[in-house]
């Protein structure tokens, strides 16, 4: 790599504006060099560097500023195009005065040039050359260029000291397009994370050393695969709901009409989801949805601009450190719009509407409908499991092993008792009574009643008897097993060993056991089936009330919630996988993961004004719904990338994401993880609006939504911290202090209090959590936040020199991964801000001059 610097007195900056031009020139030269360059501003100027390396012609841009220019940039030489000692390199400097010109030649004027051979550089003292820039006719010197050689790759202590000593102290910032790092791009990472973009920086520390900072951004295959799996599960679940409604049997005309209406709506929802899934299956290309597509109908389930961002820091005499954050547009239903608000407001309105339409149906509270879904899920899970365990008990009789028989009986008893306990609920009994009243021929003595009816005509004790029969049948099975084992033990005590062996070989006692136990096991299975059928029908009837009371608006709301949840889950799955891969060798993190779960901290920069209120209301519900998600680590069938993709199972009330690991990695996990323990994720959301719309909201509007969100999620985060009993956290007094400070900031009335976000992010990292940053599109405000967080980490954790904090911040925003993210999204290297907007931004959230302009996002 060639490091080219212009000392402060080497040129006078001309006037005008700067542009960036890259113009390859074809020629017949055999030996080629390539470049990997992102010029770094150290002191601003309008002068430009043009590098001619054989047949490759590149113009670098530097920006308007002082009259004491000092720049630094790098050119890396590709191993694919070899360089020889006789290779000549020419540097030309131009003044670009007007970027409005269509051609480079019409927009620039030549200042001077200098040439050197590779041999000159390698043989020079300290491999550094100071070259004079000469005019075109070689009649005069117009400035000085310093070129030095810098080895790419890992920095060693001596090398860092050498670089720091041999370059001007003000010339210690540089950004280059880097190659991906094997540490961050192994086969496991490459299976899920795609198309990485890498930038490399060298920043000066307080002790005049240089740190190497590698910033990498990547797309994630889960952007599409998780939503597509969810759509399939939505279709399957709603199809089952239709079947369950049909299985309710004959209903009176009123209820039958309501049922038909609900089935029609579910059918429409299924058709919509099938069409969306079909369109998604046709897509090829990048593994992310650009911000300009956020309102497209067939992409509404896909998260906006989902990317991973990793910063790896290498310092002299220290081990590498890395910091991850997931960037994603706020999970929200952009296609459906925000005219009537977001999910939080719409759900409240929906509950009020249900109560007002209760004259045609029975009103059940949200808690009761949630309980109904839970009971249905429990029945669907436990009934086949109990039947399987009952069969396993009969098989255990053939082994004539007391230990095996006891284990089988213990499992059967535990699951049956769990089943009975789940159904011991007044909701099941009252719903059965209501379903009885909905049968043809029933005449209520209270026709005007709007509450759950109670009916003398129906034997209210019938459910209690049926339900109790399960427990009685189980007790009979347990008693029979005890009797059989007691008889067997008595025989063994009264029969000598040889005589017992003769008895065992003369007939098959296991058949006797099976014959005596089988009728009781069959009776248990029949009782469980009868209870499951009644409970399922009663809970389906409860859910029918919810659907029939809501009118078509209810299913529209369900679709909105599905849309937002899909985006949120895709982001969470991406973050969980990245955090798991990063901590797979961290025993403390893995112990924390299976003991108390991991916190997922979502940072939002949405305003509480206009449409963004609706987005924030959507996001709040979507993040909260992630509490219904658990993760499980499994062993992959093979190391093939297709077998390393996470999969989703479950229903709307609970989903499980299974994350497969290759055999070698899986075998190193703790027993709890290898045995498939479900892993909890604790989602928390903190929001602080920073733009000009938030200024309006704070002065003339309402910020209560933001205040409520921050207070509620602080309580969740504090409760999670208190649940940590692991030794690694008991000594972290700073976490407790940070939490106390966060709590104070949450209740403090302060405009645009971004310290809330900084504190929440710091706490999350100290708790081994997963960090997310969001704004409307994860492109502009998110970029400001991510780069600020990275530079703050360099300052606080790696002693970035205070004089270089703002410069490093500008460097990352001008040349780093986030400006590449903007380019990927809107095909323009400009953050979508204007000057008036930025006046309302907190100081450190403002991009450098020349990197912003109002563009469509």
Automatic annotation (TrEMBL):
Give the Gene Ontology MF terms in alphabetical order: phosphatidylinositol-3,4-bisphosphate 4-phosphatase activity
Q: Which GO terms describe its cellular component?
A: cytoplasm
Stored InterPro entries: INPP4 (IPR039034)
Q: Which UniProt keywords apply?
A: Hydrolase, Lipid metabolism
Spell out the protein name for this chain. Answer: Inositol polyphosphate-4-phosphatase type II B
Q: Whose protein is this, by species?
A: Pygocentrus nattereri (Red-bellied piranha)
């Amino acid at each position: 790599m060639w490091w080219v610097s212009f000392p402060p007195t080497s040129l006078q900056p001309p006037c005008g504006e700067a542009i960036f031009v890259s113009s390859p020139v074809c020629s017949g030269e055999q030996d080629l060099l390539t470049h990997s360059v992102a010029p770094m501003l150290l002191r601003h100027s309008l002068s430009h560097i043009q590098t001619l390396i054989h047949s490759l012609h590149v113009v670098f841009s530097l920006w308007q500023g002082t009259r004491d220019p000092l720049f630094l940039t790098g050119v890396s030489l590709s191993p694919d195009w070899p360089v020889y000692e006789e290779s000549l390199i020419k540097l030309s400097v131009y003044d670009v005065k007007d970027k409005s010109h269509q051609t480079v030649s019409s927009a620039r004027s030549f200042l001077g040039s200098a040439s050197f051979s590779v041999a000159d550089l390698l043989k020079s003292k300290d491999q550094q050359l100071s070259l004079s820039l000469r005019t075109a006719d070689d009649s005069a010197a117009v400035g000085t260029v310093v070129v030095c050689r810098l080895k790419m790759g890992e920095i060693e202590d001596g090398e860092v000291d050498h670089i720091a000593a041999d370059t001007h102290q003000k010339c210690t910032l540089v950004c280059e397009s880097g190659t991906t790092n094997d540490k961050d791009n192994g086969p496991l990472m490459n299976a899920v994370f795609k198309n990485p973009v890498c930038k490399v920086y060298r920043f000066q520390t307080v002790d005049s050393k240089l740190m190497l900072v590698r910033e990498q951004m990547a797309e994630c295959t889960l952007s599409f695969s998780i939503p597509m799996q969810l759509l399939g599960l939505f279709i399957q679940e709603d199809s089952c709901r239709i079947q369950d409604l049909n299985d309710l049997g004959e209903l009176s005309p009123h209820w039958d009409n309501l049922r038909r209406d609900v089935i029609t709506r579910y059918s429409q929802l299924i058709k919509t989801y099938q069409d969306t899934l079909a369109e998604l299956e046709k897509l090829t290309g990048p593994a992310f949805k650009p911000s300009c597509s956020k309102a497209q109908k067939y992409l509404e389930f896909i998260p906006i601009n989902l990317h991973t961002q990793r910063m790896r820091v290498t310092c002299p005499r220290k081990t590498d450190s890395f910091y991850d954050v997931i960037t994603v547009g706020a999970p929200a239903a952009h296609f459906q719009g925000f005219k009537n608000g977001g999910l939080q407001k719409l759900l409240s309105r929906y509950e009020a509407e249900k109560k007002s339409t209760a004259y045609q149906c029975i009103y059940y509270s949200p808690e009761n409908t949630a309980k109904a879904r839970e009971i249905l899920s429990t029945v669907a899970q436990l009934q086949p499991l109990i039947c399987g365990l009952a069969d396993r008990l009969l098989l255990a009789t053939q082994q004539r092993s007391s230990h095996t028989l006891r284990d089988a009986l213990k499992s059967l008893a535990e699951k049956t008792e769990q089943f009975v306990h789940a159904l011991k609920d007044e909701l099941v009994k009252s719903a059965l009574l209501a379903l009885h009243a909905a049968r043809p021929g029933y005449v209520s003595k209270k026709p005007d009643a709007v509450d759950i009816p109670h009916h003398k005509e129906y034997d209210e004790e019938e459910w209690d008897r049926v339900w109790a029969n399960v427990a009685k049948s189980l007790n009979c099975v347990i008693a029979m097993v005890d009797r059989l084992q007691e008889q067997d033990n008595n025989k063994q005590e009264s029969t000598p060993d040889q005589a017992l062996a003769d008895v065992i070989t003369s007939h098959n006692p296991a058949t006797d056991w099976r014959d005596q136990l089988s009728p009781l096991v069959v009776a248990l299975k029949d009782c469980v089936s009868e209870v499951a059928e009644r409970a399922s029908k009663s809970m389906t009837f409860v859910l029918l009330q919810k659907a029939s009371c809501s009118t078509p608006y209810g299913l529209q709301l369900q679709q909105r919630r599905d849309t937002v949840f899909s985006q949120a889950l895709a982001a969470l799955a991406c973050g969980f996988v990245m955090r798991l891969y990063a901590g797979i060798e961290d025993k403390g993190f893995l112990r924390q993961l299976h003991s108390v779960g991991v916190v997922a901290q979502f940072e939002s920069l949405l305003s509480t004004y206009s449409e963004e209120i609706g987005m924030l209301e959507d996001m709040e519900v979507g993040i909260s719904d992630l509490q219904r998600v658990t993760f499980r680590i499994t062993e992959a069938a093979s190391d093939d990338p297709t077998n390393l993709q996470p999969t989703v199972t479950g229903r709307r009330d609970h989903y499980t994401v299974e994350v497969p690991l290759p055999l070698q990695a899986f075998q190193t996990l703790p027993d709890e993880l290898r045995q498939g323990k479900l892993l909890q994720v604790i989602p928390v959301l903190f929001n602080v609006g920073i733009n000009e719309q938030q200024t309006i909201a704070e002065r003339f509007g309402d910020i209560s939504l933001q205040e409520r969100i921050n207070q509620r999620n602080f309580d969740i985060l504090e409760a999670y911290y208190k649940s940590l009993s692991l030794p690694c956290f008991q000594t972290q007094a700073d976490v407790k202090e940070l939490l106390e400070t966060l709590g104070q900031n949450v209740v403090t009335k302060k405009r645009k209090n971004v310290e809330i976000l900084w504190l929440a992010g710091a706490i999350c990292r100290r708790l081994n959590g997963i960090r997310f940053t969001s704004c409307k599109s994860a492109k502009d405000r998110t970029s400001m936040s991510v780069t600020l967080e990275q530079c703050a980490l360099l300052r606080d954790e790696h002693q970035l020199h205070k004089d270089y904090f703002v410069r490093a911040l500008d460097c990352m925003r001008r040349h780093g991964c986030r400006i590449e993210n903007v380019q990927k999204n809107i095909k323009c290297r400009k953050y979508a801000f204007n000057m008036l907007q930025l006046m309302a931004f907190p100081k450190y959230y403002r991009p450098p001059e020349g990197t912003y302009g109002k563009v469509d996002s």
